[in-house]
Specification:
Blueprint: E1 2-3, E2 6-9, H1 13-24, E3 29-33, H2 40-44, E4 50-51, E5 60-61, H3 62-73, E6 79-82, E7 86-91, E8 97-101, E9 106-109, E10 111-114, E11 120-123, H4 131-134, E12 153-157, H5 161-170, E13 176-180, H6 190-201, E14 206-208, E15 211-218, E16 222-229, E17 236-240, E18 243-246, E19 250-253, E20 264-265, E21 268-270, E22 283-285, E23 290-291, H7 299-317, E24 323-324, E25 333-334, E26 340-341, E27 350-351
Helix pairs in contact: 1-3, 1-7, 5-6
């Protein structure tokens, strides 16, 4: 059985950053993830997607963010159980938990931190009769490598951040980018909306709103899409394309975690914002998997939640120790292997 201080379910950015915050408190972490590598969606779905709201990085690729987080926690030597899904949980007489994966691997810890992001998920697909015919033959639901679209004609459908961000990014990669959305208003960040409009004005991007894709055409591979304007005239136009990328978001599912007795609201785990603890003492939920009034599903919010969670976890694991919070900007960070990263003088966090 694998024993640790904090068992983190989900090895995405929030789960990885929790390892860093726990490490500063001399708490050991082990992470479980159903994916075969750490990084969550950032590594599996869109490693080349630019992210703009990480403090200190005007722009960072999702894959690079994961690499940086892995480097940041390296000295704390976390354990990983990858390619396995957390299946069942049992509370022992000493108050600790045993989590068993679908492959039978058992993990024991006094604190559980669920950082499963959206959980298991599948893309939301448009209702088009012959959609399946063109999957992997011109239709894709996520972008892993934007170079695939170099010098090609691409149509993106959607009105959220992913559709906007990828339209902006591919404008400098593809020969032609067309963004189609059912409404004139977008759900994404205002800055991204303004960038799309600017690219349209510069002739670097086609923007068709309000409109929808109503048919896909081609023999063995996608050749064109039929677009219908949503207006009284219901004008239709055929657009030659190489690739169609509908970005309508993901349908999340909590999976087995949903049966653990946690309080669930709209497929997310309810938490107390004091420390992001669930209705079960000792089990926390951080990142996109949780919900509370005012919740924003942003990576930087997950980092904040992970920080407060670790403070609470320390007190739960070491109720007899007094912890004094200072700063991490000075004094260096020590790891479990005895290494120390140099930093300016003075320090950090003190445990008495």
């Amino acid at each position: 059985m694998i024993k640790t201080d904090i068992l983190i379910i989900g090895a995405g950015p929030t789960g990885l950053f929790a390892v860093f915050e726990a490490g500063l408190l001399k708490l050991k972490c082990h992470l479980i993830d159903a994916l075969p590598q750490a990084g969550g969606q950032c590594a599996e779905i869109y490693p080349k997607k630019p992210i703009y709201d990480i403090p200190g990085f005007p722009e960072v690729l999702a894959g690079d963010l994961v690499d940086n987080l892995m480097e940041q926690i390296k000295s704390f030597q976390p354990g990983f159980t990858l390619g396995e899904r957390a299946e069942t949980i049992e509370k022992l007489e000493d108050g600790s938990f045993v989590v068993t994966t679908n492959k039978g691997t058992k993990h024991n810890a006094p604190v559980i931190a669920i950082a499963g992001g959206l959980g298991s998920f599948e893309p939301r697909k448009p209702l088009l009769d012959n959609l399946a015919k063109f999957e992997d033959n011109g239709v894709a639901y996520m972008i892993k490598d934007p170079e695939v679209y170099r010098d090609k004609k691409v149509v993106i459908a959607g009105g959220g951040d992913s559709a906007l961000d990828w339209s902006i990014f591919l404008a400098d990669v593809a020969a032609q980018v067309t963004l189609v959305h059912r409404r004139n208003e977008f759900r994404g960040a205002l800055d991204s909306v303004e960038k799309v409009q600017e690219l349209k004005n510069q002739g670097k991007l086609n923007l068709i709103t309000p409109a929808e894709i109503i048919a896909l055409n081609g023999d063995d591979k996608l050749e064109s899409v039929l677009i219908r304007k949503i207006s009284d005239a219901k004008e239709e136009l055929v657009l030659e394309v190489d690739d169609f990328i509908p970005l309508f978001g993901l349908s999340p599912k909590l999976g087995p975690i949903g049966d653990w007795g946690l309080e669930i609201e709209k497929n997310a785990i309810k938490v107390d914002t004091f420390d992001y603890q669930t209705n079960i003492p000792g089990i926390y939920a951080i990142g996109d998997v949780n919900t509370y009034p005012g919740k924003l599903k942003l990576i930087l919010c997950g980092f904040h939640e992970a920080t407060l969670m670790c403070q609470s976890a320390f007190q739960k694991i070491h109720p007899d120790k007094k912890y004094v919070m200072k700063y991490t900007t000075v004094g260096g960070v020590s790891g479990f292997d005895g290494t120390k990263k140099e930093a300016p003088k003075a320090v950090v966090k003190k445990i008495e």
